[in-house]
Amino acid sequence: MIMRNVLIFILIILNYFEILFSKTLPDNYHYDTEQNILSISGIVDNNLYNLDSIKTIYLNFEESNWFQLLANNRPTEKDLTATLIYDGVTYNGVGVRFRGETSYMMTVMSQKKSFNISIDFSDSNQRLAGYKTLNLNNCFQDPSFMKEVLFHYLINEYIPAPKANFVKLVINGQNWGLYSNVQQINKKYYSEWFLDNQGTSWRAKFPDTSTAKQPGQPNFGAGFCSLNYLGDDPLIYTRYYTLKSTTMESPWDNLVNACYKLSILPIELMYDSLQYYIDVDRSLWHIACENVFTDEDGYINKGGSDYYAYYDDATGRIHPIEYDGNSTFLINKINQSIFFRETDKKYILINRLLSNPALKQRYIAHIRTILKNTLIEGKINPLIDKFKSLIENEVINDNKKIYSYQQFLNSINELKNFVKNRRSFILNVPMIVSNPPTITEVKHISRNGINLNLSANEPITIQAKVQSESGIKSVFLYLGTSLSGTFKKVELLDDGLNSDNEPNDGIYAITIPGFPAGTYIRYYIEAISNNNFFTSAYSPEKAEHNVYLLLVENKVEQNPDVVINELMAANTKTVADPQGQYDDWIELFNRSLKDVDLAGMYLSDKIDNPKKWKFPTNTILKAGEYLIVWADENSKDTPGLHTNFKLSADGECLLLVNKDEHSNTILDSVNFGLQDKDISYGRYPNGFGNFYKMNPTPGAYNENYLSIEYFNLLSNFQLMEIFPNPADKDLNVHIKTDKVGICNIEIYNLLGQLIHSHSLHTFPESTTQYNWNRSDFSGYKVQPGTYLIKFEFMGKILTKVLILL
Q1: Are 684 and 705 contacting, i.e. CB atoms less than 8 angstroms apart?
Q2: What is the pTM of this model?
Q3: What is the DSSP string of 684-747?
Q4: What is the pLDDT of residues 354-368, one digit of tens each?
Q5: Do residues 477 and 525 make contact, with C-beta atoms less than 8 angstroms apart?
Q6: CA–CA distance, 129 with 469 (Å, rounded to integer)
Q7: Which phi and psi (to 5°) does residue 322 adopt?
């Protein structure tokens, strides 16, 4: 029992970040364990949005006059049903319609229209590579065919941008040519970029039903849907923004409030106060990306067309979202000022933010980072050449393309000229070439050591080495205590009195009080030179959505009386709650000989929010008894215990947390993966063993298990035993299979190093035995501790934990 609890403790500590990141962080959140940096940037998709090949999408309509039907349906955006084939898989009943406005209206003489394809049109559960919507764009205003793909690929290092690649479209057997395939902005998109996709999404354009839209006039307008304050009445905003999705009762109030704060807060509070309503730093990155690459269809030009606004419910803030990238890399805008729209109050986001001198320098620092890492001939030109090589034959064979092959070749050269000349122009801006400070040797120091996680409530010192030829005006720490959201700003000093070593030695530091267990601390450094511009620099340089991250570790109970014994995250018919609903459930078991009062304890599915749901008073779990808690977000005054969260059938972490006030002691936890319908996940042996998939026994003893490992190996393994475990010297393995073959056995330490391997011949009619002791581990000095043992047979792999005493 002691060794088992030690193992649980070890694994929880080793996998803290793994548990959180693998189950709860969005796809585009990345944690670098060596540098302690959490970054938010797009990832390369090797499936639907693969950039190394061109896949073909086949659409088949039953109607021979499908083109005319789609044209007739365009005003109402009604879908026409079709069959889609992609990568050898057939998707029946997809919905197809024409999409786009200028790309449709300005191509009257061409059949090369843009398409919206709803994979889930007839079947709400149908997905293509996990996606339910495809947007195929006809590359209008882009003879290179690649601007949108290139632009989104480059800027998703800094801001949320849709994935995009190239596809070939064949309709009813006829080649319809090359298209850019651009990700739909919907809940799946937001779940890839934000901790919560339950917010509100608007497209900044007049709704088709808007009374503000004049006949023959465009359905956008600077000064209206540019985050301008139009008054307190939400109905006014419904005329200028198109609501795309929401889960909130009064979504427009959040937009109105953000616009109001942007318009009335004093310039000097454009960061400190506005950050609670609008993500100020991401807005600056957004403006910088659009400006550097001269985006004509976005906030900085049309001021209300082809950008989205997203209210992130997790942080209570509005974010601008990039949308349309085909009108970029414009030769006629190479000399566009990086301060474009700065004095135009219709473009209020640019006007107000750049009116603040410190935010203007932050904006300049972001452009400097883009120049350093992205707007470089050595980076972009090879990408252009790669895309040209990939798509050129498809361009040649595209008989419906809007532009000629010669225009395609000319546009490739224009793209390369743009990169060269745009970079040259920006590098002539005095603020850009003004030398910024350098920030190095950023670290946090605690009693545990340098750049290590913290214990609860212990002070932490943060240091950075900062240098500048013109001297340092000031150095600031931006500190956040969650995985996203706002920051507090405090000054770091170099006076020898703030844990900064010697006075004036370039080491700036501050010591701050400790934080409760379970807190995730994000921070970054801002340094300001003492020159004419007060030039700024940041570490990490892509702050504030790249940050240093550390964890205040939770305490872990060694031998709790009450444990999580069983759970079900996909209950469709197994057991109903007191209201007759088949909801997720959690079973607790009191394995002690005494009654336990659960009042004041917590259940949670978030490590960074361990006190998510609190047990009510008079919740007594008697010795040896079970308790069912319904995880159904129905914590109102109804019979039974109902949490304020649900369990994810895709997998997540579940915590049982003690009632201590000043720290978060984890009594028990389970990290589970993908769950099957009406199959539970529970301990075997009951109350003490590991977790397995099993036939559900809610409120009763767990009698057997149906582990995924067991089922995967059932056709090969008839017997698998390891004993003793924990082991002192000798270790025994018994294996019996249903086939003749070779079983490979490997043992690894927790650093992933292979320390022993052996191969066994197995036979179905007999049990194969293997015995060894520590002397068999040649070349490796075996220490007491935790190891992983892996068995591989007939392509199946099983891993077990091994304890050596």
Answers
A1: yes
A2: 0.77
A3: ESTTTSEEEEE---TTS-------HHHHHHHTTEEEEEEESSSBSS-EEEEEEESS-EEEEEEE
A4: 999 999 999 999 999
A5: yes
A6: 53
A7: -70, 145
